[in-house]
What does this fold into?
Amino acid sequence: MSNWRLLQIVLRTQPSALIPYWLFSIPWLSWTVVAVGAGGCWFFLWLGGAEVWPWTLLFAVTMGLCACVAGVRSYSWKNPRLSLRKQPRLAAVVKDAARTAGFRRMPQIRISAFVWTGVARNWHGKPRLRIGLPLLLQLPEDELRALLIIELTRLKNGTFRKHLLLDLYGDELLKPTPWQAEIVAAVREIRRADWLAGAELAGQEPVAAVLRRFLVSIWAFDWLMAHAPGTPADAYEAFMWKLRHDRLAERIGPNVWGWMRAHPAFAEGRAMDDLGWSDGPAPEPADDPVVTEVPRRFVDRLLFGVSPGTGATPQLAGLDLDQWLANGNELRLMVIEAAGTFLGRDADDDDVIALVRSGQAAALQWWHTRWPCPHPDRDVCTLLPLLQVKAWKQGYVAKHPYRRRELVGPDGHLIDLVELARHGGHMRDPDEDARRLAAASLAGGDATGWFEKLYAEAASGEAIVPWDSGTPHPLLVEWSRGAPGEGRRAMVVGCGLGDDAEYVAGLGYATTAFDVSESAVKGARTRFPESAVDYSAADLLDLPGEWRGAFDLVVEIMTVQALPEDLHARATAAVRELVAPGGTLLVIATARDEGGPVYAPPWPLTPSEVAAFGEGGFTAAIEEIGDGERRRWRAAFHRG
It folds into this structure.
């Protein structure tokens, strides 16, 4: 692009770009503006009378000075300076990078709220580098050094023409203007030249790695902030956790590169492809980053800048279900509105699901699907808000506050919403199959036969076992910490597919486990072919005589409550008889009040029914955990 063509575009779109950027950082310019303004006030007031103008002039000058100070302080407050004296590792890297880039003076390091970098000179010519905190907290020494060298080299080799082009590019990035292609092509060459110049000094590998990390982190952090209700006070902690433990960069990375390649206006992505640097993986956060933390007051400032006026916002881990529901429902309504626009009529959840299953998810236009996200495809992006709201309303809660797609139901049923969305999003009530089969079995006078039918159908994919979470029960895990079982025997009642039994065996117990369903026992043996657990098919109401009083630990988790109420007393006595003298019985069950309503199955246990496990010489420690619809009993009974 010729200079004359560039000047034409600037004059038509952004004439203010012709003012050199460095002028805005010089204090005397502000003083000049104040003086000119004050002189104008003086002139007009002089025409109106000599009694008023001195005071007006004084007021104008004072206000101008205050405006200058406020402007400088505002920048410093939103972009706090990181003291190199308190960060010796950072100081060493900055010093080395500055020397390598040809600067004799140590640059300032300022941090900003979002993933971005920038460099300028302050009023006395010293380089001032600004780095986004979400990026800074990830960087090892070689990548931080490479980033600093890139920015300092860019500052050293900068020209007014480059400033104009980059200014126009930032303003015109996603606007389909007639000159967009020219601007993008010119910026593409600028980026390539800057990055190659940095690679000559810092090495190609760290430069390519930090650029990949930078571009992926931009979208990853924006995605996280857009999907949390409000602005969480632990935003940076949540972001780093998802990078380290939830593969956020790995999952969003391919979508970022796909998005950039689909948008020809994104010069950075084109330049990365030109150099062949976009093919590598998005690096994980360094195990030992140069900067591990910054003062808490800085974080508070940055979060205020992210969402001004939010005040004291709750931590992401502390948000209640209503807040998540409100946020999720807002996204859900956007999807439904997009479906209605596409169909030309009012739409609902079923319409969205039908469109996805017919392969038309890409036709739905709503803001989230226009940007990169960590989800595998557009089907998942479209269905996820619907499934989240439905699951939360059914009593599912997140296993981890920062991983909202993995949910646990009221009875321990585990679902992965992303996987559910990938398979069409059909989300049934997890208790539907159990209630259907139980109703038929009970109608025929068989209180336990439906267990076999449920596990048999689940093995063929025709049904869901609502209590099968694929993990040991968390209340068992919490209770058993620090309690090794070497040299002792354990029994797991109603073992299902074996997760609790395997966990107990892992504590060192010689473990026996049984279930009334032969299909469940077969499934447990298939899942754990090398298991030391002795799995058996047996009826709790008719147990082998040799099991009575034979076990040092008996674990009963939600088995008695799966039987009709009139069998609870008999089943409770059978469980109690398994405990050896000096042994312990652990009972975990859903709780309800005496005489409370039952939507069976299951038939949750009342306080008196739980206490009945301890009859006949047991000492009891009974806990009621949770509130509302998620109340649980955890009771430990010790036999004297």
Q: What stands out?
A: Confidence is low (pLDDT under 50) at residues 21-29.
